[in-house]
Amino acid sequence: MSAETDAEFAEYVDGRLPSLRRLALLLCHDWHRADDLVQASITKLYVHWQRARKATSVDAYVRTIIVREFLHEQRSAWARRVVLGALLPDQPAADLDSDAAIDLRTAIAGLPSRQRAVLVLRYYCDLDVEHSAEILGCSPGTVKSQTARALASLRRQLDATASNRLRLGAVIAADNAVEEAI
User: What is the CATH number that goes with domain 91-182?
Assistant: First the structure.
């Protein structure tokens, strides 16, 4: 590539890097893996920069690369053999219910990778069904069914977590009542 094209690529990546990292984090739930995913995607983008810059939306092109790279990584034998411990981001949001956020992150991390990718594309990237299907390389019906399954699974997991938390709260209250009586 020419120096001008390299500068254009560097300017694009520099401006979009934080949002690319957030997208990757939502997919893989680990900052280190997210950085690796973004790096691999940026490398692919550089190789195809001439084609990408002519696309209708460079952001959509890059999102497609990131999601497909994530799904490819999930299908690899390495991903099935190696399980990295899930780490929370460095700083949680200040006025967020941290227990609910942790429960939601845990529930999303437990979803199959395609369902997780569908939720990220539909609700984080705010893409419609057709664009999500295009990125995932599947039919719109598959996106709809994967979305429905993912949301149903999240509801089940979060309902079970809330029930367990209520039971735990009742046990703690009973223990406190016993301690006060003694």
Answer: 1.10.10.10
109-135, pLDDT tens digit by residue? 889 999 999 988 988 888 899 999 999
**How is the chain classified by DSSP, letter by letter?**
--HHHHHHHHHHHHHHHHHHHHHHHHHHS-HHHHHHHHHHHHHHHHHTHHHHHTSS-HHHHHHHHHHHHHHHHHHSHHHHH--PPP---SS--TTS-HHHHHHHHHHHHTS-HHHHHHHIIIIIS---HHHHHHHHTS-HHHHHHHHHHHHHHHHHHHHHHHHHHHHHHHHHHHHHHHHHH-
Third-level CATH fold of 1-87: Rna Polymerase Sigma Factor; Chain: A (1.10.1740)
The yes-or-no verdict on residue 26 having pLDDT over 70 is yes
